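Researcher: Here's my situation. A collaborator sent me these components and asked whether they could plausibly form a single complex. I don't have experimental data yet, so a predicted model of the whole assembly would be a useful starting point for our discussion.
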Amino acid sequence: MLNALMKIFGKKEPSGKVARDRLKVVLIHDRASVSPEVMEHLKHDILEVVAKYLDIRPQEMNISLADDEDSVALVANIPVTSMRHGGKHIE
Amino acid sequence: MSEIIVITSGKGGVGKTTTTANLGMGLAMRGKKVVLVDTDTGLRNLDLLLGLENRIMYDLIDVTQGRVPYKKALVRHKKQENLFLLPTSQVKDKTAVNPEELVKLCDELRQEFDFILIDCPAGIEQGFKTAIAAADCAIVVTMPEISAVRDADKIIGELGRADKENIKLVVNRIRPQMVEKGDMLDMDDINDILSIECIGQVPDDEMVVTSTNRGEPCITMEKSQAGQAYRNIVGRILGEKIPFMTFPKEGFFSRLKRVFNL
């Protein structure tokens, strides 16, 4: 909301805050020793599994590591178009 | 009881050597017997910052390879008789000393000195591993800059893997006016991100440059803001509770001067 307002008034976010946010993300990856390639493989594999059960829009999928207080969480946001009723049923 | 402190950063150019020179001088000014060990073999500079470049006869490699006893390689500071430098070689490289040799040397130095400060090379390779081997504690120097903070985080991780638990942070070259405008990471940001104890914040100060030019650490200069920050850090190392300095807001006239580039 604040961001949107700032955009309307043409005011940029202070660069110190940008630096902090970028650092937080990059350090999560550094600390977990997860390279962008590994994340890409992980994303690919997750997609494959989820696609067996749900119709998804792979292009819009978003996967990242996020800082959650004292722990790190793997957050995946996968838009679902529809459930596959009786589609591919895995025994 | 002597203490071995390694001053390290990961990234180059954030002020490790300047910090080493100033803290060494400051501890000596407080009556402690101090030796500074330069382990940045091949890229030595600590001698220059202390104005001792013309007095070097032997170096760290001569000592670790057994050619001379360490006492022969020590250079006493011209003005501060409690301060000694053990310079390194400018021609050899970082493989010339290994961790075991440095640990053995530091054990000898412990007999004579209250504080042994080790100036660590940049990077996380062999030179770094050698420099931290003997240390009881580490001071990580960083700058309020994205790359320096990232490298500091990496170094903190490496220190942890080497079982170095006692790690303190110094944030160097803070520009209060930029922090005030929100255009620079502030102390809270850096503390929040790195989550280790901070023992100093040093403002960017032109006197650091001029004092380096003369080979006199700025901690000896009464009026230097950075010098004051370093004096505070020395106090904290000695166990004193000293509040962090606040930076005066830019006054109207100095802002006017800056705007008109006077």
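Model: Some features of this prediction you could bring to your collaborator: Residues 3-259 of chain B form a domain with the Rossmann fold fold (CATH 3.40.50.300). Chain B has one domain: 3-259.
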